[in-house]
Amino acid sequence: MANEENFGFKKSTINWYPGHMVKAIREINEKIKLVDLVIVLLDARCPKSSLNPLLSDSLKNKKCLYVFTKKDKADTQKTNQWVHYFKKQDIRVVAIDAREGKNDKLIIKEAELLMKEKREKDLAKGLKPRPIKTMIVGIPNVGKSTLINALVGKKVVAVGDKPGITKAQQWIKINQNLELLDTPGVLWPKFDNQIIGYNLSIIGSINDTILPIFDVALYFIDFIKKNYPQSLKNRYQFDDVNEEALNILTKIAKRQNYLLNNKEEDLERTSRFILQEYRMGYLGKMTLEQCKDDE
Ligand SMILES: Nc1nc2c(ncn2[C@@H]2O[C@H](COP(=O)(O)OP(=O)(O)OP(=O)(O)O)[C@@H](O)[C@H]2O)c(=O)[nH]1
Ligand SMILES: [Mg+2]
Question: The domain 18-182: what is its CATH number?
């Protein structure tokens, strides 16, 4: 098992933080100063783990709209609790399925609401209304480019079901009132605790080669056992999930017939399999972290 000292990362990959992310975060922090509004995308399945601390200083004095994506994959009740928790702190937040076109009105309305005051000031000064310059930020794979495509109504930027699809910033005009800057997904080099790393790995925002996948899968199985036992029972026809995570993983390997040459169960492959099952939504709607209110 990974220990606290190596932050859950393999020793050999302790310097895992890629150079392109250092550059991307620098460019985001530079550009933030120039935009009117920042749309911060968080994964509805783990909104806290997906909040990038490297952006917090730049976002402090900025107008921000928080958007939880992948609400279709999260536990609806928990998403409502998270939304409520953010709203209580006077943060504007909406939860969406970013693939849906019908988000456009909601997001544009929120953006205009946030910009109302500035618009009125400009008008009072006799300045012509300019398009709202908005930047979209968020961890890899959270749905930034998907949301932009949904807002435009056609595919204008590349999307893909793996982290690191967007490589560079790109401005997209949504209409005469709104311009959006797509940005590459960024993480941060050290997580406050191991669970954050596990959550980001489970949702597929950290490349599977970075964290020991077997540890992530065991953590994940323990989590489901405790929080969503029915999902394991339904998907893999288990009568009972009151056994070690390792036994459950081994049983799934047998069930899938994932065996090594020596006929032992291939637990590495099974670990990847169970995480993929979750990412595809086959294990049902699940939220990986509770909001503070009910901790
Ligand atoms: N189910 C579901 N899938 C989504 C949602 N938003 C995005 N996706 C999927 O998530 C994957 C990643 O989407 P992208 O838009 O490429 O993510 P990104 O944030 O731009 O990722 P990077 O460019 O790598 O930083 C794609 O397969 C999308 O179809 C959502 O709300 N629900
Ligand atoms: Mg992208």
Answer: 3.40.50.300
